[in-house]
Write a structure and sequence with these properties.
The structure is a homodimer of 286-residue chains. Chain A has helices at residues 12-21, 45-49, 62-75, 90-102, 115-121, 132-145, 157-185, 190-197, 205-208, 232-248, 254-271, 279-285, and strands spanning 2-6, 25-29, 40-41, 54-57, 81-84, 106-109, 112-113, 124-130, 146-153. Chain A is an alpha/beta fold and 286 residues long. Chains A, B: Residues 156-281 form the 3-hydroxyisobutyrate dehydrogenase-like NAD-binding domain.
Amino acid sequence: MKIGFIGLGNMGAPMAKNLGEAGHDVTGFDTAGVTVEGVSPAATMEAAVEGQEVIVTMLPNGAIVRTVHEAIVAAADPETLVIDCSTIDVESARAVHDLAGEKGLMSLDAPVSGGTGGAAAGTLTFMVGGSDAAFAKGRPLFDIMGAKAVHCGPAGAGQAAKICNNMILGISMIGVCEAFHLADRLGLDRQAMFDVASTSSGSCWSLNTYCPAPGVGPESPADRDYRPGFAAELMLKDLDLSQTAAEKNGAATELGRHARDIYERFVGAGGRGKDFSAILERLGAG
Amino acid sequence: MKIGFIGLGNMGAPMAKNLGEAGHDVTGFDTAGVTVEGVSPAATMEAAVEGQEVIVTMLPNGAIVRTVHEAIVAAADPETLVIDCSTIDVESARAVHDLAGEKGLMSLDAPVSGGTGGAAAGTLTFMVGGSDAAFAKGRPLFDIMGAKAVHCGPAGAGQAAKICNNMILGISMIGVCEAFHLADRLGLDRQAMFDVASTSSGSCWSLNTYCPAPGVGPESPADRDYRPGFAAELMLKDLDLSQTAAEKNGAATELGRHARDIYERFVGAGGRGKDFSAILERLGAG
């Protein structure tokens, strides 16, 4: 397939590289002028868009996605499938679907989980919103860039699923960290806390798979001095998205809001650039 | 073994019955005068305590446990092992260990998870604090009354592990319910939310095993009109215990406190007697 890839940052670059290595004809563009092995560089965004069968974007936020997709829709061939893999607000995601639809283009919102490690290894999970036909056309590319793609529903459903999932994640990570901290203060061994909770009703991904306590559970960022992984400021971004969506849609998510506030304080107090599980250290210091 | 069992309520009665059915000589006492199949009734607490090798207690709170254990220690034979299976505050648990120790009795704090269903089926999990020798002596009884017993550490470690675990549980259940509620408001299908989060970083016992959304995931109290299961007021009791322990020991558990407050409001607003997962309904109504 002829693929245009816009946004070659920490996530986009390895994703584009994996598409190229799988034999696709990939043309890439990034405002920072990044070059990626196996990806033909385009001098302008339009040059990356014209004549492609699929356009993939991986961009920092909803405002940039809206601007870039306006340019894409203006320059793209009819029949092009436009896939946005950025994590953005549901409203912007639906707006760019509408934009594509007005010109008769197929479109998908397809945010990912799995981080830069998953992008490099091609093991991302895609949460996808859009029509069945668009999902069917995009699926082979998801299979290259990731290990799993879930079709969550119509336009915006991918973003909705991602922010719902990550709201659970942010809340449960803080809960697990508070439990380790309380265990410390009660003189309960961290390994004993892990042994009980990881096999009981406290079990969760934040504890069992990504344990925030160094030396306990499977290897995780805690065992690498909290190098991310999934950085605290990205968790804050996702919790911001879920709270914005909750406010706009009248949803009651007060524990989600509290988790957002805790991550905001953590990022402001030295947490930026650390893994989101490093919040355990801050509790101990508080 | 000759066993005295004090506290034959919803949990204690089936636990005592299982010990009797396994061939032990069980004498039971309850202030309410309950009789249990296979358990010899004692007219007084002292009659249930004298001449026993093991005394098991299953009582409502720390104050009652302290009073009952004073009577036990006064009447028990030397060499008796005293096991308290109640869920109580860590401080009271340590106080009754001290009480037993002063008279040379062995003791264990051994709160359970698994609810009345687990008590009846003999599939409880015991979280146990006390000496290695005491744990070794109690183990055969745990194996009858439960499916798992974890030795968490010295006196009080069982209670500490339970409140840490249940703090994670309370927090994650609210997080999962808020995520379903947000999904509803965003027009994201609940099944799609479950499919993504239960296989991703949002996976947790509250979602995967005990899903609060009716008709989604494995069968749970949500599918039985939120009949408990694990009642909301018991979750509130456990979150109270964890916050009391946090305050007394200078631990920072602000999300745990918020979860406690949410359950307090829920119990006060019609949640009493419902399963703790029914909080999803309240979010929808809020």
